[in-house]
Design goal:
This protein is α+β, with helices and mostly antiparallel strands. It has three helices and seven strands. The longest helix is centred in the middle third of the chain and has 16 residues, at about 65-80.
């Protein structure tokens, strides 16, 4: 979750946090329907803060107003003062998690060791398999491993597809 919210705060809708020149910030912007409220909720290892914009008697802030434009600048200004002199600190990585080429995996489910990247489905032949079902992670995306992938039976593929089918909205 920290990784996801860090991406939002540095490269997504919350990229305005980059003005603080810190690499230890996470956060999320938000805007309600009809732009009645806009907010930014963000944190650093030692401090959490939320900035909100809206009216006491709900009405639109304007069709072009969003949390990133209204609340985020307030949050940044506050955090600039609140974090002055506070050293950067990254949250500890949870037990049982490891990083491979910048991607997080469970330590017992890394590429080539229990992690299945694909079961080889395509729209023309949904029950077909491919030989590179396990992959590594890198700048070019998933790549075939050096070791042969484990055998995935037709029954296992069907069970996986049934899981997806049963969870459709």
């Amino acid at each position: 979750m920290n990784s996801l919210l860090h991406s939002v705060a540095t490269a997504g809708t919350g990229a305005g946090t980059n003005a603080l020149h810190r690499s230890d910030l996470q956060g999320k912007t938000g805007t309600t329907n009809d732009a009645k409220d806009g907010w930014f909720a963000g944190y650093q290892q030692s401090l959490v803060a939320v900035a909100w914009m809206g009216y006491d008697q709900p009405k639109s802030l304007g069709s072009r107003e969003f949390g990133a434009q209204l609340a985020l600048p307030i949050w940044v200004e506050y955090m600039q003062r609140a974090l002055r002199g506070v050293p950067q600190g990254e949250p500890a990585q949870p037990d049982g998690v490891t990083s491979v080429d910048g991607e997080l995996f469970y330590t017992d489910m890394t590429p080539g060791n229990g992690f299945v990247a694909s079961i080889g489905l395509d729209s023309a032949n949904p029950t077909a398999g491919v030989s590179d079902a396990i992959g590594g992670v890198g700048p070019a995306g998933m790549t075939p491993p050096a070791v042969p992938p484990p055998s995935v039976s037709s029954n296992e593929k069907k069970q996986i597809m049934d899981l997806f089918e049963s969870n459709k909205p």
